[in-house]
Amino acid sequence: MNSLARLLMVLGGSTVLTLAAGWFVDLLLRRADARHPDTPLWSLLRRSRVSLRLVLLAALLRGSYRQIGWPPLQEHNTAVSRLLTLVLIGAGAWLVVHIASAMVESSYARYATGTRDPSRLRRVRTQVTLIMRIVTAVVALVAAAAMLLTFPGFRALGTSVLASAGIIGIVAGVAAQSTLGNLFAGFQIAFGDMVRIGDTVVVDGEWGVVEEVTLTYLAVRTWDERRITMPVSYFTARPFENWSSGGAQMTGTVFLHCDHSAPVALVRHKLKEILDGCEAWDGRGWDLAVTDTTPSTIQLRAVVTAKDADRLWTVRCAVREELVAWLAEEHSYALPKIATAAAHPAPSVAGAAGRHAG
Fold this sequence. Notes:
The protein is of the alpha+beta class. The chain folds into three domains: 3-114, no CATH class; 177-242, SH3 type barrels; 250-334, Alpha-Beta Plaits (2-Layer Sandwich), CATH 3.30.70. The chain is built from 14 helices and eight strands. The protein has a five-stranded antiparallel beta sheet with strand order 4-3-2-1-5. A three-stranded antiparallel beta sheet has the order 6-8-7, with helices on one face. Strand 3 (217-222) and strand 4 (227-231) form a beta hairpin. Helix 3 (49-64) packs antiparallel against helix 5 (77-114). The chain is elongated, with a radius of gyration of 35 Å.
């Protein structure tokens, strides 16, 4: 049998065995998924079909290519062996990441089905995301190191690299001080429950929702759909508002400036009427009081509540809009007025003294 026929047999046989093994494993996963529909692990593991087949194909070719006897392969035996080894390491790392992701996602899904507390789900989701990023980074680092060790030059440098690891570590630590600080801040945020994905926060005067948390940065989506990317160390070094911590329900205020003749009792009754017709109001509480007065106006403060920040914004806007419209239509005299009449001159001191003396 000539070498070309052996090449075709090895390639064809390895491909057939790979497809057959992949089909068999996929069949087992589909049956397990059908028997346990409440466990998403088996369906998630099916995502690793491509990486599994690539690992099997690379392993079969790595073990059988020497039997081909084709002259070009024999001449480049070292390069072919190294190439197949690199493919096997890369595919193995890809498969490990897929399996780890399936296990983590399955655990989170089962936890989510048994937990109805949104704050706990956001906290666990943040931790799961960071755990997967850590696992991916570690696997990629180990795979890269294993690939480099397949080259004789890098293997020879291993002893000297280990000998100088202390000095390199000190230099790298000084050079990457900010990066390491963000890395440890990411762990603190994830497992210290400071801020979670989905939390409503106010940073640097900007209101938004935490959209992504990584080991080094945090992305906030503002109300106008802008994205603010900030280092995670910001949240461990500076104060910020987290409106979702301890519960999403919130209390807000609406301020109105009215004339002194404003019917406060009627305004209070109208406020309750507006809130009863507002779906965003959660019914927990409300109030209206005169909180300040000036020579020309009084300040009314309406207190309203809602289930979360978005609904609170809706309630505040509705109350402000409808109260102003109602005052303008029914009690226009209660709106602030600007005096435009000419002021009367003050009496002279001498004239005033003469009148008192008389």
